Amino acid sequence: MRRALSDPPRPVAGPRAQPVGRRVSIPYRFETTATAGECHQRHGDIEAGTETGQTVSVAGRIMLRRVQGKLAFATLQDASGRIQLFAPAKVTPDHDGFCALSLGDWVGATGEVMKTRTGELSVKVEHWEQLAEARRSFPDKWHGLSDPDIRFRQRYVDLWVTEEARQTFRLRSEMMSLTRRWLEDRAFVEVETPVFHPVPGGALARPFSTHHNALDMELFLRIAPELYLKRLVVGGLERVYEIARVFRNEGISTRHNPEFTMLELYWAYADYGDIMELVEQLVAHLALELKGTTVISYGGRELDLTPPWPRSRFIDLLATHSGLDVDLDTPVEELRSHCADREIPVKDRWGSGKLLLELYEKTTEAELWGPVFVCDYPKEVSPLAREHRDHPGWVERFEAIVAGRELANAFSELTDPDEQRARFEEQAADREAGDAEAMAVDWDYLRALEFGLPPTGGLGVGMDRLAMLLADVPSIRDVILFPTLRPEPPERPAPPES
């Protein structure tokens, strides 16, 4: 691909100066009859130097342009790909105006599909209209954007100049569609539950709060849809799911964004063993559909997603990777000492279950390339999960760990309203003691449980992390179109034209 001689690359900066006396009349609409991709599909195999006799109207951005005397060439890009616009002065009206187009301008063009003598499929421009003017310069089209801050802040630029970014978000969109179809084929019903919650719950996280003026009440952006979805199981929706935007007032990292997307589902009459099979089958299905194989590469390292995935107990993995012979009956002071040896900060109220979790997260989780189901967590850190049928003090919970990070979290759901109330009250005490991530008592949810929740398996999947995995990108910002970022300095307004 040749560089446009008349348009050297310019940095993304302030508004470009407008030519004096040039005023563009922008139409209200432009009717297209083909995309760039469709033109290549229908006519890509014609011989060089031939014409098709087929007239099309295409539209998109001018990404490259060069002028050679009475001939002008421009590369037009739309959502489907690129096609050349061939504009000879004797055919193209207002040829000088066409030659004056800037890189990034939106253009609609009508003409015959043909192939130049050099073999470039083209539309010979017999009519054209400028559809929008790019008043800011685009960066170098041949290398995309290398500055991640510009990429994430100015996604509208990144998507035009970085093919990998476009591919990533197409993959994410298809992943969501495939997930919905896969669940619907298994009789799961998609629902929508409230984003504003009167009581923050469903996860251990700090919520965002707001105030509703008309009702004069404090509300919280949801940290999880879990408690509302389980209310629906009580109501008789036996297989229910939501792909939900959730909000957590926490730090930002390559794996965390304050707003992100969760798949949560609840399956009556199932337990966490059934959910394990569902997770591994769903992820393998998505990998096969999107990548053509269940053996993928992530960060240059092979990852085999083929079911069944290994299952290992939390406490066994902790012993293997930390070298510590510890359990729930290990004295709390000994666990605190192990944390201190590893520079893990602890709080006075933490019991053995929380201390074991801290040791696991700091010594073990990142070492699990996986995929692996880490099973059976301490009850202290799992207030919504059902107590393990064989191991007192533990609950039937698993996390799916893939590439050293949590991909999914699931339980055999706690169904006993008395036990749930006791756990809520323990959480409320932690909250009163200053733990901003602890749950409050949700009295209406307890009332729902008193109507009867059957045995139920529940699941939460981080869809952004799943997209990271399948797109092979290192940061959650690569799969969220507009991630949360620190404020940038205000841009100075352009000086007035003289």
Structure keywords:
498 residues, 5-stranded mixed barrel, 13 helices, BirA Bifunctional Protein, domain 2, OB fold (Dihydrolipoamide Acetyltransferase, E2P), 8-stranded mixed β-sheet, alpha+beta, 2 domains
Structure characterization notes:
The chain is built from 13 helices and 18 strands. With 498 residues, the protein is of the alpha+beta class. It has two domains: 36-142, Beta Barrel (OB fold (Dihydrolipoamide Acetyltransferase, E2P)); 161-310 and 370-478, BirA Bifunctional Protein, domain 2. The strands form four sheets. It has an eight-stranded mixed sheet, with helices on both faces. A hairpin with a 2-residue loop joins strand 2 and strand 3. The radius of gyration is 29 Å and the shape is elongated. The two termini are 38 Å apart. The model is unreliable at 1-13 (pLDDT under 50).
| Name given to the CATH architecture of the largest domain | 2-Layer Sandwich
Distance between the termini: 38 Å
The count of strands amounts to 18
Q: Per DSSP, what share of the residues sits in E-state strands of 2 or more residues?
A: 25-35%
CATH fold field value of the largest domain: BirA Bifunctional Protein, domain 2
Radius of gyration: 29 Å
Residue windows where pLDDT falls under 50 for at least 5 positions = 1-13
Count of DSSP H/I helices: 13
**Major sheet: size, sense and barrel closure?**
8 strands, mixed
CATH class of the largest domain: Alpha Beta
> Can you tell me the CATH superfamily of the largest domain?
Bira Bifunctional Protein, Domain 2
* Overall number of domains: 2
Residue share in helix: 25-40%
Category from helices, strands and their pairing: alpha+beta
Strand order across the largest sheet? 6-10-11-18-17-16-15-14
Residue-averaged pLDDT: 92
**What would you call the shape?**
elongated
